[in-house]
Amino acid sequence: MTQTAWVEELAWAQGLISPDPAERAVALARHARARGETEVAFERLHEGPFPRLLFGIRMRAYQAAAARCFPGALWSRSDYARGEIGTWPRLPLALLFLEWEARFPQEWTEHAKDWGAKRVLIRDVAATRHDQALRAKLVDLVELAVQRPYRCKDREYVRVARAVDGDDLRDRLRRAQRSESPAAQLHASYVLRILDHPETPNTRHVWRTWLADRPALERQGTSGP
């Protein structure tokens, strides 16, 4: 099956980020079934007295099953060179995976947690060329990330912010600064500071040093990168 066909086959996965709980529940149930089928296919890899004779067939069955759910649908990264994810046929699935984690973190954690995949995808979408549609999606993802308490690998979104820096992004970050969420205020302020100082590395040490200079009240509700 072609890469484009895989993306079309997973069109139902858009329901995972639906604001409609009923629609999302249907997509979650389908994803759970696909994960179950993947687990069964994995168990079959070494079944029987002569597993080597059937390993190739069973491996292909396992890979096909895994490609119908997350994170397995994103395993075929050999289809693009690092920094060229913008031309990858599965890019819509990668963006869906990141948006799912950003909008519904608990459901993502329960059904598809893969911090390594999150880190790699964020770095790759930051490094690629950005057309208007991709840039708009990435601005949305940065905004979603700063509006919540810190989650594993969220610091990678600073790379994205630097890659898509512009008035629209900064306007959203300033709105987050003025929100009632202490986490959003803090994270947005940090990202703006990093954008204003491109020479500053986005490291844990930089974050902690900056955080130590903030009033204690501003640090409430976040554990930081």
Report on the architecture of this protein.
With 225 residues, the protein is mainly alpha-helical. The protein has eleven helices and no strands. The N and C termini lie far apart (40 Å). The chain is elongated, with a radius of gyration of 20 Å. The model has no long low-confidence stretch (mean pLDDT 88). α6 (115-127) packs parallel to α8 (157-163) and α7 (132-146) runs parallel beside α9 (167-177).
Question: In what range is the share of β-strand residues?
Answer: under 5%
- Overall strand count: 0
- Global mean pLDDT: 88
Give the biggest sheet: none
Q: What coarse outline follows from CA principal-axis ratios? A: elongated
Order of helices and strands: HHHHHHHHHHH
Distance between the termini: 40 Å
Gyration radius over CA: 20 Å
Low-confidence region ranges = none
Q: Which percent bin holds the helix content? A: 55-70%
Structural class label = mainly alpha
So how many helices?
A: 11
Brief synopsis:
The protein is an all-alpha fold and about 220 residues long.
Short descriptors:
single chain, 225 residues, mainly alpha, 11 helices, 61% helix
Present the secondary structure layout:
Blueprint: H1 3-9, H2 21-43, H3 51-66, H4 91-103, H5 105-112, H6 115-127, H7 132-146, H8 157-163, H9 167-177, H10 182-196, H11 204-212
Helix pairs in contact: 2-3, 4-5, 4-7, 6-8, 7-8, 7-9, 9-10
